[in-house]
Amino acid sequence: MASVRVLLLLLAAASAVQLSIGAAAEAAAVPTLGLDNGLGGRPPMGWNSWNHFACNISEDLIRDTIDSLVETGLAEIGYNYVNIDDCWQAKARDSKGNLVADPETFPSGIKALSDYAHSKGLKLGVYSDAGYYTCQRRPGSLGFEMQDAVKFAEWEVDYLKYDNCFNDLSKPELRYPVMRDALLSVDRAIFFSMCEWGVDQPATWASKVGNSWRTTGDIRDSWYSMVAITDQNEPWWPYAGPGGWNDPDMLEVGNGGMTTAEYRAHFSLWALMKSPLLIGCDITNMTEDTKSILMNKEVIDINQDSLGVQGHRVLKSGSGGLLEVWAGPLSGNRTVVALWNRGVWGATISADLELLGFEAGSELTARDVWKHEDVSKPVTGSISADVPSHDVAMYILREAVKVDANAENAESFARFEDVRKVRAGRASSV
Ligand SMILES: *[C@@H]1O[C@H](CO)[C@@H](O)[C@H](O)[C@H]1NC(C)=O
Ligand SMILES: *[C@@H]1O[C@H](CO)[C@@H](O)[C@H](O)[C@H]1NC(C)=O
Ligand SMILES: *[C@@H]1O[C@H](CO)[C@@H](O)[C@H](O)[C@H]1NC(C)=O
Question: Which residue has the higher pLDDT, 404 or 57?
Answer without folding.
Answer: 57
